[in-house]
Amino acid sequence: MSGVKAQLAIKLFGPGLDVLAAKGQEIESLVKRIPGTRDVAMEKIAGEAQLTITPNREALARYGIPVGQVMALVSEAIGGVGAGQIIRGNERYDIYLRLDHRFIATPEAIRDLVIQAGNGAWVKLGDVAQVVIDSGPPQIRRDDVQRRIVIEANVEGRDMGGLVAELRQAIETQVTLPPGYTVVYGGQYQNQERAQGRLMIVVPLSLAMIFLLLYFAFHSVGQAALIMLNVPLAMIGGIFALLLSGQYLSVPGSIGFIALFGVAVLNGVVMVNAINQNILGGMPISHSITHGAFSRLRPVLMTAFIAALGLIPMLMSNGVGSEVQRPLATVVVGGLVSSTLLTLVILPVLYRMFSAGLIREWLVTHQTRT
């Protein structure tokens, strides 16, 4: 999307090519000094040899030669002029006529080309135009109709967000940009920033909808909140797994947290529902909690182990696509470990606290029926 293959694209926008080249080199040197960057390179913006022919309007006026006649000579002699086509079945080949290579091979040879003035005199091209070899840009690239230059870099051993924050501060303090010149950060960082912005909206909405569905299922705000405690319990394992593996939070890791929340909430639903059924069946509360926790030990462990074992190949991958698979699998596997262990211990302990009102309602209903 940014026009580069590197992870990070630092785009410098501005009107002047010389200023872009000079400031781009400053930024390139600065990026190389930032820890965690590698393969730093600035795209080529100068050094391309170009043949430049500049008409001398005063000399042309003396000879009565229009500028268009000079440009037509250069275009036809060097570029060629179409003279027809050769047709061979379905194939068509254009025919171009131009001067022989020995007459246009060097600037000196081009200067010796002759052009006829309005009075019939023959004049060398070098007498009415400047023919030189200049150094110019190989290509002028633009984004949003603005000239730009890109400094590419890959990130290694650091999180991209922290590196870009340090780089942005360094450029603002150490590189002085003239008015009209701006720096924009693109590449995978831009995609990551955009995705994280969307996740900041999607994840809270998803959690709110899950809480609402849990309330409709259990008719209790307390029990819905108790089950939602599995979300931070799962995040503990996912964060520690990223820390131990030396990885950083990325878009795949964020998606892994979303998948992890679903499994963690499912385990909480299984546990709380089993305890509720024991209480509704007339079992004492303490015994209902203990029996419900032990009776759902196997289903909770099976759910966690099946999900974790299915992600082991992704967790061990190191080939193409591992930069997406490993963070996702690391978050889910680590979160399942903490979520499963803490669900089996913490949820039964906190059940009575979060379900006090519902328990009283059930006891009153049971006594009324009795």
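[next item in queue]
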Amino acid sequence: MDTRRWLAAGLGLGWLPLAPGSWGSLLPAGVFAAMGLAGCKAMLIAGVQVVLALLGAVGCVWLSPYTISLTGSQDPDEVVLDEVAGQAICLLGVMFCTGPAARLGVNQVLFVTCLGYLCFRLFDTIKPWPCRPLERLPTGWGILADDLVAGLYALICLALGYWIWY
């Protein structure tokens, strides 16, 4: 097994059929949901999301050039560490929604997980300004940057949705 390519594919999630980016986004969303349902405080959940965002970002910039060289694509579908980073940034919104010491109820966990996932996937798909121009950055930076901005847009929508709903 090619370890660098497997890691760039988000532990192989990027090799799953149909919309590999959606599979990659499930990693931080699943971690968020599991921690929230286990009763972890928002600060701990956000801390783990920061780690996922950093690992996804650094891994994307570091590992994606290798996959680019193998596939010939400037943005290989199998590279999903950018989605891991962007989705994790979105889910950091939990601290802005609840406060760092809060524990989320089941309904809140499900609401934040689902709305955060859907918002991130929407912004990652439609690529509002400046996402599209950021894709032109070299190698891994171009793959990553648009997802980080999509994650920020999704975080804002998640926080607004949470504030309106709760």
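[queue empty]
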